[in-house]
Structure formats: C-alpha cells, structure tokens
Amino acid sequence: MLSRHHRISRIRLIAVTVGALAVTALGVVGTAHAAPSTDLASGRGVASTAVASAAGSLSPDALVSASGSVVTPEQGAASVLAKQGRGVQGSAPSLGKGTSGMSPSSIIGTDSRFRVTPTTSFPYRSTVLILRDGNLHCTGWMISKDTMLTAGHCVNTGGPGGSWYSGLTFRPGSDGGTAPYGTLTSRGTWALNGWVNSGDTNYDAAIIKLSSPVGATVGWYGMWWQTAALDGLFTRVTGYPGDKPSTQWMSYDSVRASGTDKIYYQNDTVGGESGSPVWQLRGSTAAYCAGGPCAMAIHTNGLYGSGLTASNNSGTRITQAKFSTFMSIVNLP
Predict the structure, then answer these.
(1) Which of 91, 251, 274, 324 is catalytic?
(2) What span, in angstroms and rounded, lies between the C-alpha atoms of 16 and 18?
(3) Mean pLDDT in order along the chain per 10 residues (333 residues)
(4) Cα 54-58-62 angle, rounded to 5 deg
(5) Catalytic residue among 137, 153, 258, 328
(6) Contact residues for 173 (Cβ-Cβ < 8 A; gap 6+)
(7) What is this structure's pTM?
(8) How far apart are CA 246 and CA 52, in angstroms?
(9) Residue-range domain boundaries for the chain
(10) Is 274 a catalytic residue?
(11) Which of 169, 186, 218, 258 is most deeply buried (CB count within 10 A of its CB)?
(12) Is 276 a catalytic residue?
C-alpha cells in the first residue's frame, strides 16, 4: 500500500490442504460449527470502526468485518477440524502448473527484485493487484477459489477511530495494468481485531471473499503454521511495488528472525507490496504443502524504528489462531 503502514521436544507442523478443500483426516473428530454471522454485502467497507465497543473482550486474532460481524478463533478451529482435519495446500487448476517515521521504500543494499512476466503461470496468476479508486494500492493472494489474503492496513486504517477503505477492486495476475482474469469486487471483507481496534502490526491481516470464484481458474497458494521458529527458511515475496507501476516483482531471501506473530527478512520490497505472500516453493516430499507454493506470512512492513525492524522488512506470521479464523471464511459459501 502506498501509505505509511507499508513501512509499518518436538516440532509440531500444521499444514493446510487447501487444494479443492481436500480432507486430510488424521483421527481428529469434530462437529461442524454454526456459520458465523456475516454480511457478505459489506465488502467494500464503510467509514466506521468495527465492533469498537467490544474490542476489549475480543481476541486480537478474531476477525471483524465492516458491518461488525465477528469470527472467533474458536469458531475457526471448529471449522478446520470438521472440514480440513489438520490441513491446505495450493492448487494449480488445468491452466498449467505451471506512518510517519517509516521509510517509503524497503530496499536493503542492492535492489535484488526481478520482474515476473508473463504473470499467467502458476502461482503468479494467483497474486492479486489491489486497486483503490483505480490506483495501485496493495497486493493480495488467493487462498481458495473465491478467497484472498492481504494486509489489514490494505482494507482498514487501523486503531481507534480507524475506517474501512472503499473503492477497492482486485485483478489476479495483472501485468502492466491488464486484467487477464477480470476485475473483481468484494462481497465480504474482514480484518483481525488486533489491527482494526488497536493498530497492532502483529495482527495486520485481512481476508476477502471475492465476487467470483476466480481461483478455480488461476489456482491459489497454500499456507501453514508451526510453533517452532521459522529462522533460516527460504523466503520469496511476490507483489506489485509502487515504483514499478502495475507490474509484478519478486525477491529472494530467508527468515532472519521470527517471533510469535511476526517474521523478519531482507527481501527487497516497496510500497504497494503490502499484503504480498511470504512463501516457499515446497519440495515434493515436504511434510506440508508438498510440491507447491506455501506461505508462512503476509508482508506488511518495511524498515522503521530500532531493533529488528531497523534492518529487516517484516510480515504478519500465520499462527494457529490466525489460520483457524482464515479457514472459517474460506469455508463460507
């Protein structure tokens, strides 16, 4: 996004088999949860802060919408147990496998970005250009046939008195402003409570139900969470930087440090790439997302402040609670 916010023993692995929502039963029995209260007509947002009066009683990992509907991590966990077992993986359909004080850009040393073109191969066609009133705003990425993730600050300004953006449209696989898979709108938009009501960058994430099941054509990224540190894992960041108008770019690095809700890396990024997937191309024998693209975080911030954020770009880490609430939206019709 072209705003200040862009710059703002045992290992347990949880994988997601998002690919046609295939069940990967691992002996966990669950019952389907009642569908959360939603207003899919509220997707483009209103100038109000969702459920502000209840912010203190909600988990920061709960999702809130522009209309004030809420999805809790507990509801999401029930959805995951009932439908996915322990897991989602990316899907390539038949097209082929194919704020102040923050720097406006986040190039660390030599600019290592390279252009992705054409963008019609998988998973690059699953990367989404987000426009606001027709202008470059942010990046998103498909996680199911009709659902995408992005940064919370791409849909809501965040914090007390914050507001929801209107005029957002979405172009999967855009290349130089083109719309090879059409221009879509939202029929439902949610952001994490920790961002909407507190402006906490640890919860800077949003999920959007799109007006068309375009993922059935372009495919979607997988995603996963794990409790173990992510340090040293290879990272790719793919998105639409503001200095390269409406073209898709990517850079490589690795996780330099990881916290409970955030990871740090030195992939080069520029405003406009907020909301991009921080992902890996998994090997065919990987324990999760085998043989496909799988994201561990949502890119949110460039360089700012002191400590880790002074020398690293960063993103909102996908945790168990975040994963569960995201999947509850994926599972909505």
Answers:
(1) 274
(2) 6
(3) 45 34 25 29 30 62 88 66 46 39 62 94 97 95 98 96 95 93 97 96 97 97 93 96 92 96 94 95 83 94 91 95 95 92
(4) 125
(5) 153
(6) 119, 120, 124, 125, 126, 127, 128, 180, 181, 218, 248
(7) 0.79
(8) 35
(9) 4-8+36-330
(10) yes
(11) 218
(12) no
